[in-house]
Write a structure and sequence with these properties.
heterodimer, A: Cytochrome C Oxidase, Chain A, two-stranded antiparallel sheet, 60% helix, globular, B: mainly alpha, Four Helix Bundle (Hemerythrin (Met), subunit A), 5 helices
Chain lengths: 628, 193
């Protein structure tokens, strides 16, 4: 028992032995902080980059909200920031408005809620929670970040070219995105967008391969699938979805590149510009939508599942109760992951699709409500009669459940092909996905930051500022998106620069103003968070080893884990991660590393059986667990 | 010392595989999805009509045989490595790389045939799809040939053998995958004219 058997083939084991004997890695600044292969440093790189993008994406949204809420205002004061994009009349340039919404969507969906959320927490938590020294391949992990960085750099550059960034919507539908003559943003801006997205996909695939490999192959002894924290399950499913769907976007984008730059006609047909026919014949723009949404819908769950996993963990920890229905939680995530691949056409109900096909996709879409409702039910029943501690992380997790519910319910409306014909591309859709996907995932990400900040930086964030941040953001988000339901039912189309030409819509001007004011306040509240975050990195209270009394493995590491995570051997795991408030136990939590034989007072009958069973194997060969 | 030792139950070992080999399979999964997206797009687009009908170049049948043969040589190389027959391993690996190049040359001639039949990359998507699908399969095969050469280089250094099978196993997996992928694409394109 004194030696450690990591059951990894010899040629990858050398790293482990180094760690066992001499633990400190003395690299220089570049290898420690910039081109680091340590998953914790890479996670922080993803986090900081994601936060920078979130700030940019949020600012863009406030700029176009200014136009929507105050259509008559003089925005001359924005000229120092936007320069020529402010017209001589002090208005936002109409084409730049489209660039704003496009870039807001692209940045938030891909750069913040995919890379910033999955990239940060999958990287940070997978090795720490499954009990591994690092990812399966630290080098690939590093590449993953740097491809993301390159992608970010290219996307950021597109803001500074004279024709402006891509403006055909984050979905980049052709022909708008395929023809440079369609609009300014479809020129160089769109090319840069495609290059950035290609790099981004490479980054996601490199990361995803690593996440899956690590979860399956690098678990510590005793960490069976049924003892994995729900965070890991969520990251695992997310990575699988990403691995299956991002190549499809890559394929779609390649065909779009060929159409744009080589003159093929995959997506283009019978287009006349200025009375002259283009040479493209025989393409189908709907084809792009099929390919795009085959990624696009799973992408929604790529964004959401990690947030749900983080929430499961935080709600159980701060309710001091085992998560309700662990297997149902895993099962519903699996079900959601599978369903995410067969519902893509509900984004295309108005493309002239066969109504029978529409009804099939309606049915499949509405089925998603079942696993989603299971998850909400389990969150609520976990909270029920718990000893709830309202930490900032807990507040944001509860906020997520709230958004997931209110936003999810409108999904039932939109999933109906008949209802969707009325609501398609209105603000109702905007309200729906901003609540259920945008805000819910954003809250999951913020909750994760508050919860794992002590592990990341060894210090605590300020709880009072945290709860101020929560209440302003929570109310702000509802004030922003709730009125949009009404605006949408009234028929306001999304992405329009102005409605002042339509007398009908004038009556909603004050509601739009309210939304815009709420958006500005919500964005401002994020600076409280930023201050809290950066101040706490340097001046926060020193964090104890296990500040939340949590059971998972990451809290058994030192306050500042070095590369390799545990100074000695990797702890073994003896129980599932949700032994909170177990009757008879001395404390209200039992870490995963405590064997059943040390807690006779709280063991259940079947757990005592387990001790006997496992004792027989001591010192002898242990039967390998088979995959189920 | 024994008395101080706490005896606790031994936790079970977890299921695990070679991480890099496993990662290779995941990579193959994503490559498969890329081609699946294009063949699905092909079917969807073809169903809409306005489709150009033309014969696939005959040479694609011969290149299919070549790539099957290269899979056999690759398997022979793998067997030689397992039996520690280094010189045979090198020969089979070189044969595999050469067959790979022959395959690529054949694909190129296939493209030339298409051009002679006035099927161009630019034009009806029916033709463009064939170029994109075969072209990207070819690109992957180029990467596989480079991979074979890398493994060949390390076998010259004597690093490949029964004690270190992982590199050649992964290389063989990739090679067989691309062979099977081509057969799928060839059959698919032949059936769905």
């Amino acid at each position: 028992m004194a030696t450690i058997d990591t059951h990894i083939p010899a040629d990858v084991q050398h790293g482990d032995h180094e760690h066992d004997h001499e633990h400190e890695h003395h690299g220089n600044f570049w290898t420690n902080y910039i081109f680091s292969q340590d998953h914790k440093v890479i996670a922080k790189q993803f986090l900081i980059t994601g936060m920078a993008w979130a700030l940019i994406g949020g600012t863009l949204s406030v700029i176009f909200r200014l136009q929507l809420g105050f259509p008559d205002a003089n925005l001359e004061w924005l000229r120092p920031l936007l320069g020529g994009w402010i017209t001589d009349q002090g208005k936002i340039d109409t084409e730049f408005y489209l660039a704003l919404v496009t870039m807001h969507g692209t940045i938030m969906v891909f750069f913040v809620l995919t890379a910033g959320l999955s990239g940060t927490f999958s990287n940070f938590l997978i090795p720490l929670q499954v009990g591994a020294r690092d990812m399966a391949s630290g080098f690939m992990n590093m590449l993953s970040y740097w491809f993301f960085f390159l992608s970010s750099a290219v996307m950021f550059t597109s803001f500074f070219i004279s024709t402006g960034p891509a403006s055909g919507g984050w979905t980049a539908y052709p022909p708008l995105s395929a023809l440079p003559q369609a609009m300014d943003g479809s020129g160089l801006g769109m090319t840069l967008w495609l290059v950035a997205m290609a790099l981004f996909i490479v980054s996601t695939l490199l990361g995803g391969i690593n996440y899956i490999t690590t979860v399956i192959n690098m678990r510590t002894q005793g960490m069976s699938f049924t003892r994995l924290p729900l965070t890991i399950w969520a990251f695992f499913f997310t990575a699988i979805i990403g691995l299956l769907s991002f190549p499809v976007l890559f394929g779609a984008a390649l065909l779009l590149i060929f159409d744009r730059s080589f003159g093929t006609s995959f997506y283009l047909s019978d287009i006349f510009i200025g009375g002259e026919a283009l040479p493209h014949v025989g393409g189908s723009p709907i084809l792009f939508q099929h390919l795009f949404w085959f990624l696009g819908h799973p992408e929604v769950y790529i964004v959401l599942l990690p947030a749900l996993g983080i929430t499961s963990e935080i709600i159980a920890t701060n309710s001091r109760k085992p998560i309700f229905g662990y297997k149902a939680m895993v099962g519903s995530m699996l079900f959601i992951a599978i369903l995410s691949f067969v519902v893509w056409a509900h984004h295309m109900f108005v493309t002239g699709m066969n109504p029978f096909l529409g009804s099939i996709f309606t049915l499949l879409t509405l089925i998603i409500a079942v696993p989603s409702a299971v998850k909400i039910f389990n969150y609520v029943t976990t909270l029920w009669q718990g000893n709830i501690r309202f930490t900032s992380a807990m507040l944001f997790s509860i906020g997520l459940v709230s958004f997931f519910l209110t936003g999810g319910i409108t999904g039932l409306f939109l999933g109906n092909s008949a209802v969707d014909i009325q609501l398609h591309d209105t603000y109702f859709v905007v309200a729906h996905f901003h609540l259920v996907m945008g805000s819910a995932s954003f809250f999951g990400m913020i909750a994760g930051i508050y919860h794992w900040f002590p592990k990341m930086f060894g210090r605590m964030m300020d709880e009072r500022l945290g709860s101020i941040h929560f209440w302003v953001t929570f109310l702000g988000v509802y004030f922003v998106f709730f009125p949009m339901h009404y605006i949408g039912i009234a028929g306001f189309p999304r992405r329009y620069y102005s409605w002042t030409n339509f007398e009908t819509f004038s009556s909603f001007a004050d509601l739009n103003m309210l939304v815009s004011i709420a958006a500005i306040i919500t964005l401002s509240a994020q600076f409280i968070f930023l201050f809290n975050f950066f101040y706490s990195i340097f001046r926060g209270k020193l964090a104890p080893a296990n500040p939340w009394g949590a059971t998972t493995l990451e809290w058994t590491t030192p306050r500042h884990p070095k590369h390799g995570n545990w100074p000695g051997e990797i702890p073994h795991v003896y129980r599932w991660p949700y032994d909170y408030s177990k009757p008879g136990a001395k404390e209200d939590y039992i870490p995963q590393t405590i064997p059943y034989s040390e807690t006779p007072e709280s063991n259940l009958p079947h757990e005592n059986e387990l001790i006997k069973l496992e004792m027989e194997g001591t010192g002898a060969i242990v039967v390998d667990e088979k995959k189920h | 010392m024994v008395s101080e030792m706490k005896i606790v139950e031994e936790p079970r070992k977890t299921l695990s595989m070679h991480p890099r080999k496993f990662g290779m399979w995941l990579f193959l999964g994503s490559v498969l999805m890329l081609f699946a997206s294009w063949t699905s797009a092909y079917i969807v687009r073809r169903a809409e009509g306005n489709w150009l009908y033309f014969e696939l170049p005959n040479i694609f049948r011969w290149t299919s045989l070549v790539i099957l043969a290269s899979s056999i040589t690759m398997q022979m190389a793998y067997r030689s490595a397992r039996r520690n027959q280094l010189s045979q391993l090198k020969n089979w690996m070189m044969a595999t790389a050469i067959l790979g190049l022959v395959f690529l040359a054949g694909q190129w001639m296939g493209w030339a045939d298409l051009v002679r039949n006035s099927v161009y990359f630019i034009g009806n998507p029916a033709g463009s799809f064939v170029y994109v699908i075969t072209g990207f399969h070819g690109l992957h095969l180029i990467s596989a040939i480079i991979y074979v050469l890398i493994v060949l280089k390390s076998s010259f250094k004597g690093k490949i053998g029964p004690a270190n099978m992982a590199p050649i196993e992964m290389c063989a997996t990739y090679w067989h995958f691309l062979g099977a992928l081509w057969i799928y694409l060839f059959v698919f394109l032949t059936i769905n004219r």
